[in-house]
Design goal:
Blueprint: E1 2-14, E2 21-34, E3 39-43, H1 50-57, E4 65-70, E5 73-74, H2 81-87, E6 88-91, H3 104-114, H4 121-132, H5 148-161, E7 166-170, H6 178-193, E8 198-202, H7 206-209, E9 214-219, E10 222-227, H8 229-233, H9 236-241, H10 248-258, H11 270-276
Parallel strand pairs: 3-8, 3-9, 6-7, 7-8
Antiparallel strand pairs: 1-2, 1-4, 4-5, 9-10
Helix pairs in contact: 3-4, 3-5, 4-5, 5-6
Length: about 280
Amino acid sequence: MIEIKNLAYSYRSDHNQADTEEETIAINNLSLSIEKGEFVAILGHNGSGKSTLAKLLNAQIFPTQGDIIIDGLNTKDHDKVWEIREKCSMVFQNPDNQMVATTVEEEVAFGPENLQIKNPELRNRVEESLELVGMQDYKHRSPSQLSGGQKQRVSIAGVLAMQSDYIIFDEPTAMLDPKGRKDVIKIIKKLNQEMGKTIVLITHYMEEAVNADKIIVLNQGDKALEGSAVDVFSQVEKMKKLGLTVPQVTEVAYELKKAGIKIDKMPLTIDQLMEEL
């Protein structure tokens, strides 16, 4: 499991027209745990610390204070950094930021090659990962010839080929069209439900967070809300005060309830709303 204990992180930046350094607190005394096999969604407005948390989990940056323990390994232990990154992989918002090879096949092989995985296991991992994300017919193509959604699928295949237990998705659908978004979320759900991968999904699309076992809402680097999708999204007023929305269906139910219509349980999907009505 992942344990986050009293975590704090500050960015240091040079102050304009001055010799002093300015400190910006991105994460502030955050504590939470993520169980193996869980699907956790992290929400929060811009500047709430979501992406900073993702980088800390992947040991791209290290805590200013507190600890992150991943399967008993502390991310501050520099001797264990590669082992931690092998366990806890990351898919970025912009797939172009993690494309390094000239063909899709080579791109997917890049991660496991760096883990010194040899053939035939390497080739098997690449084939299986491409098949899982539906990109096996594109393996000889250049990534530059792919659409945004296809590139994101290749990024996911690269992480799968590393066989990581924990996969962090940092707003993976932000640059995609609705079809691309739908495809990526379908793959994420499959990884969690069928392959038992632990998923940490950072998103600003509330409809994507509905699928999660647990939702954590960050505000100014600390935990503002934590609970199931129903628990969190039922608190419509609190979500609005935090600068966030709720799924459209939940918003409609909330307005209907305010207008006097009896709704016992806040719905998250259209089917649930129809049932309540």
